UniProtKB/TrEMBL annotation, chain A:
It comes from the Bacteria. The chain crosses the membrane at residues 26-47, 67-89, 101-123, 135-154, 212-230, 242-263. Keywords: Cell inner membrane, Cell membrane, Membrane, Transmembrane, Transmembrane helix, Transport. Residues 66-263 form the ABC transmembrane type-1 domain. The keyword Transmembrane helix applies. One of its GO terms (molecular function) is transmembrane transporter activity. This is Amino acid ABC transporter membrane protein 2 (PAAT family). Its main location: membrane. GO terms for biological process: amino acid transport. GO terms for cellular component: ATP-binding cassette (ABC) transporter complex. CDD domains: TM_PBP2 (cd06261). It comes from Breoghania corrubedonensis. It is found in: Cell inner membrane; Cell membrane. SUPFAM superfamilies: MetI-like.
From TrEMBL, chain B:
GO terms for cellular component: ATP-binding cassette (ABC) transporter complex. CDD domains: TM_PBP2. It comes from Breoghania corrubedonensis. InterPro entries: AA_ABC_transptr_permease_3TM, ABC_transp_permease_HisMQ, MetI-like, MetI-like_sf. Residues 23-223 form the ABC transmembrane type-1 domain. This is Amino acid ABC transporter membrane protein 1 (PAAT family).
Length: 276, 236
């Protein structure tokens, strides 16, 4: 028997054994079956209760609510980013008193429920009406939308300040020392060296914060702002048709999941020079 | 000042006792939700960590749904949805039955579901922090897979998951405020009632915020102690 023929002879095929029915396998089938049944049930419910009149009457309302939600979240996140800058500076300040004040601000907004804050501003503003009228802020707090915008801006600014301060603290000191060695001014070091690196690490927490705001924004419906949730509650109270909640729930999931995926792609793209 | 003290006193004129009862309900709801959310989250993490693709996918769908929905929406879907669903189901057999779900239970389930979808991710990343050698060490000593999980993996898992779970507890404490919307007399709702009757909205909502702050301070202190306990085995 030559060496060549032995190498040419194929090894015997492995004996096919049936995969055993383990507990995990059964549980996997059962749970996937449950989700498929739920999905089919949802489709069946929406198809059977599909009503052209309902859609014609309320379809545009959902879109209007969605736009209010996006407007509210977009504006408050952008304005909150502006407010967060001085707060983050305060958190990083070596001055103890400024540091304490900034920490108290952040602690208050992060330690209390957003709903309680909205109530505090919306209903509490009435207690200071003459004062607010004097300083010309009454128009903002009188209106539920303005009040929600103000509360959301302050709330997200506290979270964003903490994200930004943490990211700046994480920039290695060597980077700043290198900048000083090169004779760069403090402003240049901060804006050209520290901030770009900090924003890269802050990208993921920023994305999470936007998603949390998007989900948190549903509570403004309680103070009569007609965002997506508010419109849904209004439609439900008129029709007693549960599909209102289901449509809104699907819109929210699509919005949040879509934003999450876009953000993941964006982060992967922006950090591609850091990948090894 | 006297006016404020009267309003905050315990007794007939004051709202102190109502607000204290609301605070207790908030704490009770959060404490009742915690074991539910932890257990559910742990089971979900086990499913995501298993080698069965169906099981992983089912757990991922759960997380996607309940992390994507606003907490308020989850609460409404469970509170109204289960009510309507049960009514329709029982209506098949018996005519004209009206079912009302206990709002404490609905709040507990909704908050637990949200908590578990986040805690499953915390547990999952803790699982990834435990090396394969730990399992193999357990099996080499002749422990069964259940014993390995309980005696070898779980103690390390708790230490790794604790920071993430601490954050989730603080979030849960704040999320309990949402149940005031389905009519549960928690801290925020009782403050709202007091504010409406006494017309001192700023006082009472400010007080509610302060109580939430104190609750989260106490939690932080407690969690720091648990963390120190969990870390006492660390040599570094």
């Amino acid at each position: 028997m030559s060496l060549g023929s032995a190498a040419a002879e194929a090894p015997p095929a492995p004996v096919k054994t049936a995969r055993p029915w383990t507990f995990t396998r059964i549980a996997g089938y059962a749970l996937m079956g449950f989700w498929i049944a739920m999905g089919l049930g949802l489709v069946a419910f929406l198809v059977s209760s599909f009503d052209p009149e309902f859609m014609a009457k309320y379809g545009a309302k959902f879109i209007k609510g969605l736009i209010v939600t996006i407007e509210l979240v977009g504006l408050s996140v952008v304005l909150g980013a502006l407010v967060s800058l001085p707060v983050a500076m305060g958190r990083l300040s070596s001055n103890k008193i400024i540091g304490r004040i900034a920490y108290s601000y952040v602690y208050f907004f992060r330690g209390t429920p957003l709903l309680a804050q909205v109530f505090l501003f919306y209903y509490g503003a009435g207690s200071f009406r003459p004062f607010l009228q004097d300083i010309g802020l009454w128009w903002l707090l009188r209106d539920a939308w303005g009040c929600a915008l103000l509360t959301f801006t302050l709330n997200t600014s506290a979270y964003q300040a903490e994200i930004l301060a943490g990211a700046i603290r994480n920039v290695p000191a060597g980077q700043i020392e290198a900048g000083k060695t090169l004779g760069l001014k403090r402003g240049v070091i901060f804006f050209r060296i520290v901030l770009p690196q900090a924003l890269i690490t802050a990208l993921r927490p920023y994305g999470n914060e936007v998603i949390l705001m998007l989900k948190g924004s549903a509570i403004v419906s309680i103070v009569t702002v007609f965002d997506l949730m508010g419109e849904t509650r209004r439609i439900y109270s008129r029709t007693y048709d549960f599909q209102a909640y289901l449509w809104a729930a699907m819109l929210y999931i699509i919005l949040v999941e879509g934003l999450r995926r876009v953000w993941d792609k964006l982060e992967a793209r922006l950090t591609r020079h850091l990948k090894r | 000042m006297d006016h404020v003290l009267t309003l905050l006193s315990f007794g007939k004129e004051g709202w102190g006792d109502e607000i204290a009862a609301g605070t207790l309900l908030t704490i009770a709801l959060a404490l009742a939700t915690l074991p539910l959310g932890l257990l559910q989250g742990f089971l979900l993490a086990l499913a995501k960590n298993s080698d069965d693709s169906n099981l992983q996918r089912a757990a991922d769908i759960y997380t996607t749904i309940f992390r994507g929905l606003p907490e308020l929406m989850t609460l409404f879907l469970i509170y109204y949805g289960v009510q309507i669903g049960l009514q329709a189901f029982i209506g098949l057999f018996v005519e004209g039955v009206y079912i009302e779900i206990n709002s404490f239970l609905a709040g507990m389930v909704a908050l637990g579901v949200v908590f578990s979808s986040y805690s499953s991710e915390v547990f999952l990343s803790a699982f990834r922090g435990i090396s394969q050698g730990q399992y193999e060490g357990g099996y080499a000593l002749g422990l069964s897979s259940y014993q390995t999980m309980r005696l070898v993996i779980l103690p390390q898992l708790i230490r790794l998951a604790l920071p993430g779970l601490s954050n989730l507890w603080l979030v849960l404490l704040k999320d309990t405020a949402l149940v005031s919307v389905i009519g549960l007399s928690d801290l925020l709702r009782m403050s709202g009632v007091a504010a409406r009757v006494s017309k001192e909205a700023f006082l009472f909502f400010g007080l509610a915020c302060l109580i939430y702050l104190v609750l989260s301070m106490i939690s932080s202190a407690g969690l720091a102690r648990i963390d120190a306990w969990a870390r006492k085995g660390d040599t570094r």
